[in-house]
Each structure stands twice: as structure tokens, then as C-alpha cells.
Write a structure and sequence with these properties.
This protein folds into three domains: 150 residues, Rossmann fold (3-Layer(aba) Sandwich), CATH 3.40.50.300; 33 residues, no CATH class; 97 residues. 49% of the residues lie in helices and 12% in strands. The protein is built from 15 helices and nine strands. The strands form three sheets. Strands 2-5-8-1-9 form a five-stranded parallel sheet. The chain has a two-stranded antiparallel sheet with strand order 3-4. Strands 6-7 form a two-stranded antiparallel sheet. Helix 10 crosses helix 12. The longest helix has 18 residues. The model has no long low-confidence stretch (mean pLDDT 92).
């Protein structure tokens, strides 16, 4: 188990060792979250690297990663706990068969840890030999408001109340990362319990650094063209502009095709790796894609000269 970073520089280095290139403001927010035991709430467009933060933390610190993937209709039985009703019924039938337990004894026997199915939020409160786990609550904006309200108790005191067992508390709080793609606003009451950071699209320079780490075998010319083209797309009015994840996917796809430099035909053939909606592809492919590519190549040529 790796010890927690002692300052912002150590946090930057930890992320870098995990192949995550963060800016200093993100590293500062993460360091404060870790050192002060406060959840880190990160908003930003899909594909900018919010979820990856939790994965890197888990790997580099040697902690268990508990991921709660949020969706509409998420409830306590999926996120926190539920009773193993099938096993409880078997226990009741066995008790009836041998007729040696009264009702109160039977009730206490079937409502204990043996029959409790623990979900990510409850697991996050348990002690672990490797240290408090990393709890990732991913895409919180996809849940309903009642579940968001339920999280207040968990994030305020790191405790969960189970009616049959009482209140269960964490001896050491987990490292909590919450992400949101901002499809809806998260309530202020929850935000107040967290440190906040907006994860934006990276600059061209930083995205090129990310690509060199994530796709090191890509030709330098190709990497420059890929980043330049994606940066141009983000300036356009598209339904969904590509994130960093799409940039990396595109680079890997082009490497697989033995490409060392973009050309219009290959560009049109691989647009589906960076654009995920047909309307966006139809808007870019053909003459528009060629125009953008030529513009990128001219800018790169002027820089190199």
C-alpha cells in the first residue's frame, strides 16, 4: 500500500506515474480532498478523464476500487444493501422443520451479516487491510433526486442506517470521487459536502502530451494532426464534440491501420471513432473534413518552419 501524497506536487507526481497528466488545479483539488477527508465532486463533458482519476488513485495507492455506476431508477438495494431473501426463506423452513427456535430468536438469526448482501456504498464503510477504498460514484446526474438526497447521510458522516441492524459507520472514511456530465444540476446540499472541480477539455499542448503517454507508438506527425483536428472539431457546433477518450481511441485506430499521416479518405473512413452521432458525421465528412485537415496541416507546417 502506497502512502497518501503529502502535498500538491506529490499528488501531481502520483497521477503522472499512473499515466494521468493533470493540471495543477486538478491536483490541488484532489490533494485537498484526500488530506481533508472530503469527497471530490468533478463535473465536465463526457470523455475528459473524470472517471480515470478514481482508477489511477486505486492503482497507485494500492486501494480497492468500488464503483457505483449511476442510472435512472437506482435505489438502495442496488447501491447500498439488500437482504438475501432466498437464504432467509431456507433458514425459516429449516427452523420450522426442527421446531427448536422461537420467533424472536429466528428473527435475530436471519437479520445478520450472513444474510446481508453488501453493495458499493456499504462496502466502502468496511475496514480493509489495504486501507480505506476508493469509492467512485460515477455519473451522479443520471440518478433521481431522492437517491441524491439519500447520499447526504453517507457523505456527511460516512455512515449508513440499516433498520434491522442499526447504524454502520466507517472507522476511516473512503476516498470518494463523484462525477457528473451535467445533464442536470446536482443539489446544493450535496455539493456543499464536497470539494468541486470542473474538468475541461485540455489545451492542444496538454492533449499532445496525453497522446504521447497513452499512444506512444503513434508517429509524431500523426499525433500532431490528430490533436489539431480534434481541437478544431471542439470549436464547431456539434451535438457531441470528441473528448480526450475519443482522441486516444482515434490514435489507436490509426496506428492499427499503419497510418503515419492523415489523408482525406482515411479521415472519412475513421470519423466514427471520434464522432458518435450520424448528424455530426454527415456535417463533417467529405469537403468539410478535407478543409479542416488542410487547415491543420498548414498550421503545423508554419510552426515547424
Amino acid at each position: 500500500m502506497t502512502s497518501l501524497p503529502k502535498d500538491v506536487d506529490a499528488t501531481l507526481e502520483l497521477l503522472k506515474e499512473g499515466n494521468y497528466l493533470a493540471d495543477r488545479s486538478l491536483a490541488t483539488a484532489l490533494y485537498l480532498s484526500i488530506s481533508l477527508n472530503r469527497p471530490l465532486f468533478m463535473e465536465g463533458e463526457a470523455g475528459v478523464g473524470k472517471t480515470e482519476i478514481a482508477k489511477v488513485l486505486s492503482t497507485m495507492l494500492g486501494r480497492k476500487l468500488l464503483r457505483l455506476q449511476c442510472y435512472e431508477g437506482l435505489d438502495v438495494t442496488t447501491a447500498v444493501y439488500e437482504w438475501n431473501y432466498a437464504r432467509q426463506m431456507i433458514e425459516i423452513r429449516m427452523a420450522e422443520a426442527i421446531e427448536n427456535r422461537d420467533r424472536d430468536t429466528l428473527e435475530s438469526d436471519i437479520f445478520n451479516d450472513t444474510f446481508l448482501i453488501k453493495r458499493p456504498l456499504l462496502q466502502a464503510l468496511e475496514q480493509d487491510p489495504s486501507g480505506p477504498p476508493v469509492l467512485l460514484i460515477d455519473e451522479l446526474d443520471r440518478t433521481d433526486e431522492p437517491f441524491e438526497a439519500y447520499l447526504l447521510e453517507v457523505l456527511s458522516d460516512y455512515q449508513i442506517t440499516i433498520p434491522e441492524l442499526g447504524t454502520m459507520s466507517a472507522s476511516e472514511p473512503p476516498l470518494v470521487i463523484i462525477t457528473s456530465n451535467r445533464t442536470r444540476e446536482i443539489h446544493d446540499a450535496l455539493k456543499r459536502r464536497c470539494f468541486y472541480h470542473w474538468v475541461d477539455y485540455p489545451s492542444a499542448e496538454r492533449e499532445l502530451e496525453i497522446l504521447r503517454v497513452k499512444a506512444p507508438t503513434a508517429d509524431r506527425t500523426l499525433s500532431n494532426q490528430v490533436v489539431g483536428f480534434v481541437q478544431k472539431l471542439r470549436e464547431m457546433d456539434l451535438f457531441k464534440v470528441p473528448g480526450v477518450a475519443e482522441t486516444i481511441d482515434w490514435a489507436h485506430a490509426l496506428i492499427q491501420l499503419d497510418c503515419s499521416s492523415l489523408d482525406p479518405d482515411l479521415l472519412n473512413d475513421t470519423l466514427g471513432t471520434i464522432l458518435k452521432y450520424q448528424d455530426d458525421i454527415a456535417k463533417i465528412q467529405g469537403s468539410e473534413a478535407s478543409r479542416i485537415l488542410n487547415e491543420v496541416k498548414m498550421e503545423l507546417a508554419s510552426v515547424s518552419s
